[in-house]
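Hi! If you just cloned this repository, the fastest way to understand the data is to look at a raw example. We've pasted two of them here, unedited. The first protein comes first, obviously.
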Amino acid sequence: ADLSLLPRTGYKGAEALDWLGNQGIDIGVESNKAIEQTDGSICAKLAASEALILSPLAGFSNVVSDLKAAWAKGTDQRAYEVQREDVNFEFIITGESSAHMFAKICGVNLSPSHFAPFDVTQTSVARSNCILIRCDVGSTLAFRMLGDNASAEYMLECLLDAMAEFGGSIVGHNALT
């Protein structure tokens, strides 16, 4: 499903994670891990100085808008906002065969025995840089995927080709909630 219309943002810089923590965001300790917030939004720690914030699948969170509003008030932190809504597409790929499908177009082993819930990888998918976050939907294996907006159509074609072998198809957002 295409989640590109859901709000998302990011912050990067030497003091970005401190600022997010001061805004009540649970960041965690490890890089390349995500933490589900109390409202269902996701904070993915991409590095010691960068985090990505995704809206929950239901889309009813104010976390992203609250962060943007707090940022707009100004800060003296050594950090900057990454306009993820403007530069990244966001897809979600679900289903028991999704890790096998990714094996055709991604070098990272995403099988449930190797890639745990809320693990994050920044890797190449079909020769395009992407961020993959394992965010299961209930008991269904699921990966939220972000990449460069300019590659969205290409990536969709690659995903459709790879998932054809497994009987996959595009679903609407309502199928997830």
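Ok, and the second one:
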Amino acid sequence: MGILYSVEHLSCINYQKKAGSKIDIVNIEPDIAWEDTSKYNLLVFIVKGSIRYYLENNTSQTEPEWKSVLFLANTQVRIESDSGARLIIIRISGTSQLCDTYSLRKLLYSEKYNPKKAITSLDANEILKSYLILLDNFISDGIKCISFYEMKIKELFFILRAYYPKGDLLHFFYPLLSTDMSFS
């Protein structure tokens, strides 16, 4: 569709002009790797295609479309795709609030962590898919406002709080919440 008054948006001091912002769209071309060592925790949402990612220790994992993966800050990650992929990257610092009254850390006290149930990715349900499609449309249209990104990240965590079981969230975010440095 395209946004109205694009010149005003582009000249705004809150307009994110470069890659590496709080939210980015990344297109992975076949057989060309995307690499990052972010000072932020990365939530990677696969909205098209499938990916194979490698961590610092060269272990690889494959994830299909409509999955999300968490990478901790300062982790060197390399992502490839045999047929191409489209990712939405969300950078978060520290631990976040699922909503104004429920922090991620509360999951440690309300649920029991079971290492045998550890998950490396989270399936996108219909609500999360709708959110990601709309977010992709906004960014593709040129909406790259820092304030807007902060609202969308808050909305994302609210969606996770409202539409995902606490046990799934604990197991997905456990590396971020864990104080076990050998695990982290």
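That's it. A detail worth noticing about the second one: DSSP finds five helices and eleven strands in the chain.
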